[in-house]
């Protein structure tokens, strides 16, 4: 596959090596305070915390700071994370200053990283353009989609199409730069999609989309997609 981003393949390989633990020297455990830029463990933290999605070490500690009585913290499975459900008897942290150690990574994640490498470098993979409907549960392009859409963070292909379905009275879609994605701002004159059924082709590289309605991007109505 021509024009492949080799840097991404290298990152994926490093990810796999970190996950399976070969030739990796781990330093002492570290504490990380979880939170968005405005309120700790609160609405939008899952989408806006700069360290969300990074690699940590087993025995690192996450510190969840929040107002007790308004939030809590529960460790769940991958299915629980996607469906926003907790298992019966799951431990509920509710002190407002919870410190939780990270467990070891799942080796299955290393397999996923290897598949990612194969997709990126194009070895024995036949790729065709496709359409992908952006959706969180039954709500389409709406609050929480940035964190919960299974396709968010995956590798797509240039010329694939994202289909944004939503109520045009409640949302819109704007393609922005990385800075616009991080700061939830759109440049003056940016094209605003507002049909409620927008089909937008991906370009090679990073593709960033936000909703420009007040506070919608902050609460997760945004996407960051890589196309190779």
UniProtKB/TrEMBL annotation:
UniProt-recorded name of the protein: Phytocyanin domain-containing protein
InterPro entries: Cupredoxin (IPR008972), Phytocyanin-like (IPR039391), Phytocyanin_dom (IPR003245), Plantacyanin (IPR041844)
Transmembrane spans: 12-34, 107-127
Domain Phytocyanin, residue spans: 30-137, 130-228
Short name of any one Pfam family annotated for the protein: Cu_bind_like
Keyword annotations of the record: Membrane, Transmembrane, Transmembrane helix
Entries under SUPFAM superfamilies matching the protein: Cupredoxins
Entry's Gene Ontology cellular component terms: plasma membrane
Molecular functions (GO terms): electron transfer activity
């Amino acid at each position: 596959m021509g024009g492949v981003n080799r840097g991404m393949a290298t990152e994926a390989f490093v990810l796999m090596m970190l996950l399976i633990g070969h030739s990796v020297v781990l330093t002492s455990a570290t504490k990380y305070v979880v939170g968005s830029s405005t309120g700790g463990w609160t609405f939008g933290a899952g989408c806006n915390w700069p360290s969300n999605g990074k690699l940590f070490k087993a025995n690192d500690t996450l510190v969840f700071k929040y107002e007790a009585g308004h939030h809590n913290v529960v460790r769940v499975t991958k299915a629980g994370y996607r469906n926003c459900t907790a298992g019966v008897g799951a431990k509920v942290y509710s002190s407002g200053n919870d410190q939780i150690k990270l467990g070891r990574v799942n080796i299955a994640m290393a397999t996923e990283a290897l598949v990612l490498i194969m997709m990126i470098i194009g070895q024995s993979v036949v790729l065709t353009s496709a359409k992908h409907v952006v959706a969180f549960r039954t709500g389409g392009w709406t609050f929480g989609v940035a964190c919960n859409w299974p396709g968010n963070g995956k590798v797509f292909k240039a010329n694939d199409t994202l289909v944004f379905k939503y109520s045009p009275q409640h949302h819109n879609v704007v393609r922005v730069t990385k800075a616009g994605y991080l700061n939830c701002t759109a440049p003056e004159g940016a094209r605003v999609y507002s049909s409620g059924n927008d089909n937008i082709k991906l370009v090679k590289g990073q593709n960033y989309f936000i909703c420009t309605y007040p506070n919608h991007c902050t609460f997760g109505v945004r996407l960051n997609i890589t196309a190779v």
